[in-house]
Design brief:
By secondary structure, the protein is of the alpha/beta class. The protein folds into two domains: 1-31; 35-218, UDP N-Acetylglucosamine Acyltransferase, domain 1 (3 Solenoid). Helices cover 13% and strands 30% of the residues. The protein is built from one helix and 22 strands. The chain has one helix at 2-30, and strands spanning 43-44, 48-51, 56-58, 63-64, 68-72, 75-76, 91-92, 96-99, 104-105, 110-113, 116-119, 124-125, 130-132, 156-158, 163-164, 169-170, 175-176, 181-182, 187-188, 196-199, 204-210, 215-218. The N and C termini lie far apart (72 Å).
Length: 221
Amino acid sequence: MRGLVRRLLRPLVYRIALKLRRIAERAAEEDLPRFGNRPRNLRIELPRRIYNADHIFIGDDVLLGPGSLLVAQKLYPSYVMQDPGRPRPVERFDPKIRIGNRVTSTGGLTISAVQEIVIEDDVMFAANVYVSDSLHGFAHANEPYKYQPLWRIAPVRIGRGCWIGQNVVVLPNVTVGELSIVGANSVVTQSIPPRSIAVGNPARVVNRWEEASGCWQPLTR
């Protein structure tokens, strides 16, 4: 009898779960903030955090998985980053985050801009990628770094069709050329040419696409 009840209930539970998921997805789409443009078919899964969305421009057919953090930082330091013993003047910025068409992220994508970060069309992010156009200051070791001014501010661009692997960090003043691949756990501190494969910390190019042979060629050392 118990097995019969379980078999009868299983389809009902499945339908309820499916309906709840669709309701959650619809709510996530409807509760998106107002961006600097009006993207079509945009999906940013919950949970998510988005700050100063009017400085963020997103293309069509974009899908960002759960845990995304998009920050267009208009001022620094914020209240929580102020030294209580020595308040510092607030710097103001005019940030821009530009995300192209058909960009996808598995989840955990962090993009933080005080100047400009551009993600071109068809870029694919694996999970837990961090992209920033500034660093917390560490000019000296006499006060906590969270209280020091931002520095090394410079724009970042990730070119069309790139694949950015798991746990990659992209730092300021970097361009990743179109159709390049950055391997998992890499830290990108310098620009990467188009159609290259880069790995490591700091990331270094290990392969380049050779049009004549139609294949990846290892970089000679």
